[in-house]
Structures are given as structure tokens and as C-alpha cells.
Design brief:
The chain is mostly helical. It has one domain: Up-down Bundle (F1FO ATP Synthase). Helix content is 91%, strand content 0%. The chain contains 2 helices and no strands. The longest helix is centred in the first third of the chain and has 36 residues. The chain is elongated, with a radius of gyration of 17 Å. The two termini are 14 Å apart.
């Protein structure tokens, strides 16, 4: 396999990182809505954990984006 073909394949695999981040963000917010629907008093306590979890999940999506850009510049 040539280096350029490997880089293009790696860029395609980085798209899985975007997909995983999108699924993770959706799950975080859906569970927050579900929890607040069941216990509205817990919202202030859970909001900080919501944003911390969102930041961690989105971080992996951004890492995938940076790796894809680096692979694109390599070709």
C-alpha cells in the first residue's frame, strides 16, 4: 500500500471518531433530559456534570479532526 493510499484510508477512519462523538453527545443530552424529567430538583447538580461530559466527548471528535487534517496535509 502506498503512503498516500494509507493516509486517505486513515482520513476515512477518522470519520468514525466524528460519528462516535455525535452518538456520545446525543446520549449525554438525552439522558440529562430523561433524568430532569424524572427528578426536576436534580437539574442544578447534574448540569455541571453534563457540561464536563460533553467536553470530554467532544474532545475525542476534535482529536479525530486534527488527526484527519494532519493526514490530509501529509498527502
Amino acid at each position: 500500500m502506498e503512503a498516500q493510499a494509507g493516509a486517505l484510508l486513515g482520513m476515512g477512519l477518522c470519520a468514525l471518531g466524528f460519528f462516535g462523538a455525535a452518538i456520545g453527545v446525543g446520549m449525554i443530552f438525552s439522558k440529562m433530559i430523561e433524568t430532569v424529567g424524572r427528578q426536576p430538583n436534580a437539574e442544578p447538580k447534574l448540569t455541571k456534570f453534563l457540561w464536563i461530559g460533553f467536553a470530554f466527548v467532544e474532545q475525542f471528535g476534535l482529536f479525530s479532526f486534527v488527526i484527519a487534517i494532519l493526514l490530509m496535509l501529509k498527502t
